Amino acid sequence: MRRRGAILASLLLAAAIVLVAVVAYLLWPKGQTAAARPDGLAHTTLGAARMAAKDTECRSNLQQARQALQLYLASSDEPPASLEELKLPASMTRCPVGGEPYVLDPNGPTVRCVHPGHEGY
Ligand SMILES: [Zn+2]
Prior knowledge:
With 121 residues, the protein is mainly α.
C-alpha cells in the first residue's frame, strides 16, 4: 500500500513537470517571429495565435465590405463615392491589426486593406 502511494506520487510529479514544460513552451518568447512582426504581438506562440486571429478578422471584414459593395451596386448604377455610403459598422471599416482605414478601390470596384501584408486579402 505504501509502495502504491509512492508510485502515485511519482506519476503526479511527472505529470506536473510535463504540464510546466508545455506551458513554458507556449509562453516562451520566439525571437525570429517577434522580429518579423513590427506590431510586437507575436512575441510568443499565444501572441502569434492572436495575430493570426486578427488577420482572419481583417479577411472577414473585407469579405463583408465587398458583399455590402455588391449589394450597393445591385441597386445603383454608380459606385459609392466613399466607404461610408456602404453604412458598415465602424469596427468593420478599419484593419484590426494596424488600424488603417479600408480603401475603396474604384477599379473593380472593390475594398482593400493597406496594412503591409494584407494587400492580397
Ligand atoms: Zn488588414
